[in-house]
Amino acid sequence: MQKLLLPHGLRLVTKHLSGTKAVTVLILCGAGSRYEHAGNRGISHFLEHMFFKGADKYKNAKAVSEAIDGVGGEFNAFTGKEYAGYYVKVAAEHFETACDVLSDMLLNAKFDTKEIDKERGVILEEYNMYQDTPMYQIGWDFERLVFGDQPMGWDQIGTKELIKNVTHEDFAEYKKSLYTADNCVIAVVGNVSEKDVLKVVGEKFKFGVNKKAKVFEAIKGGLSAEKTFMHKKKTEQTHIVCGAEGVPESSVDHYPVQVLSVILGGGMSSRMFLSVREEKGLCYYIKTATDDYTDCGIISTSAGVDIERAGLAIKAIKGEYARICDEIVDEKELRKAKEYMKGKIVLSLEDSEEMAHLLGKYELLYGRMKTPEEVLFAIEAVTAEDVIRVARKLLTEEKLRVAAIGPREI
Questions:
Q1: Whole-number Å distance between alpha carbons of 44 and 225
Q2: CATH 3.30.830.10 corresponds to the domain 2-204
Q3: Is 279 known to be catalytic?
Q4: Which of the listed CATH numbers 3.30.559.10, 3.40.50.11690, 3.30.40.10, 3.30.830.10 matches domain 228-406?
Q5: Chain segment 173-194, per-residue pLDDT in tens
Q6: Could you identify which of 26, 113, 212, 298 might form a hypothetical disulfide with 356, taking C-beta atoms 3.0 to 4.6 angstroms apart as the criterion?
Q7: Annotated catalytic residue: which of 36, 48, 115, 119?
Q8: Percent of the chain with pLDDT over 70
């Protein structure tokens, strides 16, 4: 792995993978939704869409897509809470094409008014899709319940008002304030030499002299006063999330909480799956997971449950939380959870895109790359005492919150 600082301040992280014929070029920018305020909620996500709508060399969305489709590549983008990402994955011989497309998009986007107006309809339909998909919406409802009315409690899709009224000038200003060399990281992973990477990236990604002009506000306060949130909607299942505030990703407790979540609901042999689904038959899907940010986090269990027995399902989930707080995990179960985590990481990092994301994310948010070996070592170091300690810290009854979407009160 290599980290290079280019003359204009852009950070470049690379890893050569000789066992693949592909390469991923990923750009991460500290321009996620928590940089927003109440008046521009959703601009980060809308801006992500607009980068694909035309620039200098690739004039419109058709030209962008044809450039990548023409070499059999994949490209996509995403907007998270703390950063946005754009990637192209191609056969290694088309590495320069990937850089060409991405650099033109991010440096020269036009934000044409006609394209903005067309995209409003697209994003409104995306908004409606999330509203009509309880498995998506319930996670956002739970974040709002835990964090309250502040950027960490808002969803990335934003408001209909923003979607209908945002302008070219709004996009240009937002891009200028955050899409700067010092606030972006390019990760290149695959079968391409460091010499070629440095040459092509240095030529293509010539950012201006602007410095990052915005910072996001630190998380405010602790848990909200409300303990439950009910989203009344006609559904065939009640979708629930039960959990609590977690820990920041930078915390010493980050990996113990990760192991805790796997023991609780990380697979088909986890406690939640075996108890709530297999033994009690209360749900179809159930999983426990964490959402991890630089200064806060969430640990929660989500499930789609029988409308008539939603209360029983919540009681069963809370019962598993109580049990893991009372009984120290035995060595066999702890070993299984750690091997599960390590196996998933090893398999995912066979993909150049996943490796690029790992390297780029830690460089962007924390100023240093984190190697897979460091992650695996940290997981292995977690003890049974760590697990029960963080369980008792996070999963006490007074800290638990429940959000639900369904036709009846829970």
A1: 29
A2: yes
A3: no
A4: 3.30.830.10
A5: 999 999 999 999 999 999 999 9
A6: 26
A7: 48
A8: 99
